[in-house]
Amino acid sequence: MKFISAIFTVVEFFNMNFRLMILKLQGAKIGKNVKIYGKIKVVNPKKLIVGCNVTFNEGVYLNCKEEVFIDDNCRLSAYSMLISTQLENLGHSGKRGHISSPIFLGKNVWICAGAIIGMGVELNDGITVASNSFVNKSFDVKNSVVGGTPAKYLKNV
Prior knowledge:
- By secondary structure, the chain is α/β, with parallel strands linked by helices.
- The chain has 1 helix and 19 strands.
- It has a single domain, classed as UDP N-Acetylglucosamine Acyltransferase, domain 1.
- It has one helix spanning 2-25, and strands at 29-30, 35-36, 41-43, 48-50, 55-56, 61-63, 68-70, 75-76, 81-83, 85-89, 96-100, 103-105, 110-111, 116-117, 122-123, 128-129, 134-135, 144-147, 152-156.
């Protein structure tokens, strides 16, 4: 049984490194000791900048129409999303168009499972975003928890 477990560990290590290599080949800038656990989707990886010691879990979705910057020691939990673009009506004509704005996550930010970070959001160091929250504005209180739909400041940690 230990042998089989060791094989799965080697395969997972290879898959993780392979996914990181593909992202780098597509233009993403990725720091040291970044881990990807499971499958993630990155749209336009050339606008993705990831610091050191960052982890991505299963189902993370990164839409990088504009720059998405993830600083050191961040955690993106399962099925969290960072979306740097949105559809907007363009006047009375009924036409629609995409607008976009960069996303910035400071050091030690934790995006809990199912949370969505919208375009133009900046989260300061140490912020935790509660599960299934929608963040559509920036928060600058270090070491705090935000949550809800739309997200609001909840407490300091």
